Amino acid sequence: EAQVTQNPRYLITVTGKKLTVTCSQNMNHEYMSWYRQDPGLGLRQIYYSMNVEVTDKGDVPEGYKVSRKEKRNFPLILESPSPNQTSLYFCASSFSLAGDYEQYFGPGTRLTVT
Amino acid sequence: QQQVKQSPQSLIVQKGGISIINCAYENTAFDYFPWYQQFPGKGPALLIAIRPDVSEKKEGRFTISFNKSAKQFSLHIMDSQPGDSATYFCAATNLIQGAQKLVFGQGTRLTINP
Fold first, then answer.
1. What is the mean pLDDT of chain B?
2. Amino acid A80: pLDDT
3. For residue B38, which of B101, B91, B2 has the smallest C-alpha distance?
4. Rounded-to-10 torsion of CA A60, A63, A68, A73
5. Residues B77-90: pLDDT tens digits?
6. Rounded to the nearest 5 degrees, what angle is found at the Cα of B33, between the Cα atoms of A9 and B37?
7. N or C: fewer beta carbons within 10 Å in chain B?
C-alpha cells in the first residue's frame, strides 16, 4: 500500500529535550516536506526537500532541523523543543516539486512540549 | 500574513443541504488551487483542484467555483452527507514552484447533521 508513515503518533516531552519525528514514504517520491497545523492558522510549511541531500526552509523553520540522507526518509529534528512548538505535525511527499502532482500526507504526530 | 484567507471557520449544515466554503487570495502569481479534506486523526487528502483557465470544476457532489477577477474561489458540496463531516482546507500555489510554495487557508470544520 502506497503511504507516508510517521512515528511517533503522539509525543509528550519537556522543554529542551531533543527529539526526532520520523517520516518515511514508499512511493519513490522525490519531494518531501514537513508542515505544522495549528488552530486558526491552517498548515504552515516548516522545511522541504527536493531530493536526497537537498533541503530548504519553508515559512516557519525556526527551531527545527531536517535531513534527507535517503530518498524514502525525511526526519524532523527538534534540538531544544519549546512550548510554542506544541502542535500537530504532518509529513508529506509528492512525485515532483513542480506541477500539480498530488501531495500525500502522513497521519500526523501530535507533539506536546511542557 | 495569511496569503489565503478562508471562511467560515466552522459550518453546520443539515443533511441534504449545500455546504459552501470560501477562499480569497492576494498573489496573482497563483495558478493552481487545490482543496484538501481532513478527517479526524488523519492527514489531509487532495479532494479536488482547479486552474484559473476555467471558472468551474465539478467532481461528483463537489464543485469548485473560481472568480479570477475577484481573486476568490469556493467549494460547494451538494447534497451534503454526514460522511462529509471533516475539516476542509483551500490552498494555492503556482505550477512552476508547486508544492514548494503551497500555502493553505485557515481551515473550515464542517459538520453535517443527520
1. 93
2. 97
3. B91
4. -90
5. 999 999 999 999 99
6. 35
7. N
